[in-house]
Amino acid sequence: MDIDVQDTDSASGAPTHDQTRSPSSRRRLIGAGLVGLAGSLLPQLASRAGATTPPTDTDASAESAPPAATTTTAPPQRPTNDDVSLLAFAQSVELAAVALYDTALAGTSVEDSRSLFVTLREAHLAYTQSLSALLGRGAPGTIFDPAVQMFTDGFGGSSDDVLAAAYDLEATALATHEDLIGELAGTDGAALVASILIAEARHCTVLAHLAGSTKFDTLLLSDADALTPTKG
To answer: What is the C-alpha separation between 175 and 222, in angstroms, rounded?
Structure first.
């Protein structure tokens, strides 16, 4: 999703919040274009390494050994029962984002960037609808209240507060979805969450730029922790 960005003289960092996950902080690359570039280079690097590395005795013995047995079990396409719970949680996080952007748009702090915040709000609404379409009757359509409580003060504050809170929200959603991908078994759900994750990574970069940040780490890296479902 392409988003027009307005320049601003305000400088705002990206404050961290206590998350519902463990306090360990993970550095995350949110420049999705750099991830794609690295992926496109892998086949070239692999072929180059194969062409320039001399054979060894180990290589020769490996060639004479019988081939290893291959597995033919493919991952499921549709969400499994466990996937449904994970994807329902992802939808609840996205609905929380919609509610938070509604809070910002109800005030006057984002007047200079209203079109951007409308676009971000509509993007998260679209993510919830896509998850609902995948889940069908399994879609809960509920808001993850801990996320709303975590960021609501910032979204109701000054323009700088809203920008910082929006960055933190997007970075937290990014971290949450990254963790979910590692747990999802079905390829349909994993692909959908991956597409959402990439868009939210771009949101982070746009919001950091709008807040006046020029630091590479702030624009392309995030320390946010993932949210986890509440128990009970």
So the answer is: 9
